[in-house]
Amino acid sequence: STQSTWGWQIEQEWQEEQKAKALKLQGLGVEDPNGSSEDEGDEERLPWACFICRQDFVNPVSTRCKHYFCEACALEHFRLTGRCAACELPTHGIFNTANDIIKHQKLHPRKKTAVDEEPEATEVPFGEDDELPGGGVTNE
């Protein structure tokens, strides 16, 4: 027997696929849009970096629309637009502590890489009698 699909079923499947694609683009990626329930694997759908600065979260917060940012990034963006940086919905200045991100950071600390361990350059002022590159002296 042949199986036919009704128009409303095709439309519903398309909408579910579009929703899954949108979530994936926002860093909330859903692996299987057709099989898993929304409650399963919440930890896997958590973003790993701030949407604004693209760095590891610092004091993570979430918006009413469930997007995650560093606290400073969210507040700075709010001062500029008053809207969510991810979806442009009004935030009304409501940013909640992102306890799920904090918990994930504690359970899965990020491993340091060689780039992370490079010492920061420090500025050393020249004294009056210090030599400049090329053999010159600052004292004129």
**Amount of helix:** 25-40%
Strand content: 5-15%
- Structural class of the helices, strands and pairings? mainly alpha
* Rg, nearest Å: 24 Å
Average residue pLDDT: 75
- Characterize the largest beta sheet: strand count, sense, and whether it forms a barrel: 3 strands, antiparallel
Put simply, the count of helices is: 4
Note the overall shape: extended
Strand order of the largest sheet: 2-1-3
Order of helices and strands: HEEHEHH
Task: Give the low-confidence spans.
Answer: 29-40
Q: Can you count the beta strands? A: 3
The multimeric state of the shown protein is single chain
Separation of the first and last Cα atoms: 98 Å
What does this structure look like?
The structure is a single chain. The protein is mostly helical. It is built from four helices and three strands, in the order H-E-E-H-E-H-H. A three-stranded antiparallel β-sheet has the order 2-1-3. 14% of the residues are buried. About 9% of the residues have low confidence.
In short:
The chain is built from four helices and three strands. It is mostly helical and 140 residues long.
